[in-house]
Write a structure and sequence with these properties.
By secondary structure, the protein is an alpha+beta fold. The chain has three domains: 65 residues, Orthogonal Bundle (Arc Repressor Mutant, subunit A), CATH 1.10.10.10; 59 residues, Alpha-Beta Plaits (2-Layer Sandwich); 69 residues, Methane Monooxygenase Hydroxylase, Chain G, domain 1 (Up-down Bundle), CATH 1.20.58. Helix content is 49%, strand content 12%. It has nine helices and seven strands; from the N terminus they run αβααββαβαβββαααα. The chain has a four-stranded antiparallel beta sheet with strand order 5-6-4-7, covered by helices on one side. Strands 1-3-2 form a three-stranded antiparallel beta sheet. Helix 2 crosses helix 3 and helix 7 runs antiparallel to helix 8. The longest helix is centred in the C-terminal third of the chain and has 23 residues. The radius of gyration is 20 Å and the shape is globular. The termini are far apart.
């Protein structure tokens, strides 16, 4: 898809559960009084009774924790919020040409353990070059988790393959960029609060898959910064609305 092609159809409307999660994941701290949550979700086409039922189900399922003042994200979802915050405001450093390399050394692990490890490495923005060998440019300001040492060897390296060619082989950069441009178009044309929330929720989910590569390894016109700016603007807007809501009786 090129920049001039029509953007894809807008995102599907969010369920009551998804609206609640989107609001709390974008809130700092991720806790709101129950009555404020009910008021807020009403602005996104979710009725009060539906909102209360969703809150009860989410608390029973462990997605939310009841507090003295309302509802807070569970520990599992706090980790999701941390990853979302990092996707919106990635911590990078100047790249000197080194690559992070993780080579899986453990054997005899079951399918569930292998799938969990793959998900963890993907969340760390590593990509698999071949079975058991994961790479990314060493431009992120974060250490790899220490417990990876139980199943893998972690080091830095300088592959012999040209950096730009290697990055293009590891990540579908053109496809990611095309989807990001489509999402920017959706964000720009969304007018109803429910449509805007759905568009920005889709945008932040897409940012989780941004490899956050050094500029030198990205195609021209990379839309990652524009998508982050759009989401941050929306996040500030929602934070302002939460502040106003908190002053009401």
């Amino acid at each position: 898809m090129s920049i001039n092609e029509p953007a894809p159809a807008g995102p599907r409307p969010l369920s009551a559960r998804s609206v609640v999660l989107s609001l709390l994941l974008g809130s700092h701290p991720p806790e709101l009084p129950g009555r404020d949550l009910v008021r807020l979700v009403a602005e996104f086409d979710v009725g009060a009774s539906t909102a209360r039922a969703a809150l009860s189900r989410m608390a029973a399922a462990g997605d939310l924790r009841r507090t003295e003042s309302g509802y807070r994200l569970s520990d599992r979802l706090l980790e999701r919020q941390r990853r979302q915050d990092e996707a919106v405001r990635p911590h990078t450093r100047a790249w000197d040409g080194d690559w992070e390399m993780v080579v899986i050394t453990a054997t005899g692990r079951g399918p569930a353990a292998r799938a969990d490890l793959r998900a963890r490495l993907t969340a760390l923005r590593l990509a698999e070059l071949r079975e058991g060998v994961w790479l990314r440019p060493a431009n992120l300001r974060r250490p790899l988790p220490g417990d990876l040492g139980r199943v893998a060897e972690c080091c830095t390296a300088r592959p012999g393959r040209p950096d730009g060619e290697l990055a293009a082989a590891l990540w579908p950069l053109d496809a990611w960029a095309a989807t990001a441009r489509g999402l920017l178009a959706q964000v720009a044309r969304a007018r109803r609060p429910a449509d805007r929330l759905a568009a920005h929720a889709a945008a932040v989910r897409h940012l989780l898959a941004d490899p956050v590569l050094p500029d030198a390894l990205l195609p021209g016109g990379w839309p990652g910064p524009a998508l982050r700016d759009a989401y941050r603007d929306y996040q500030r807007e929602q934070a302002g609305r939460l502040g106003v809501l908190g002053t009401r009786d």
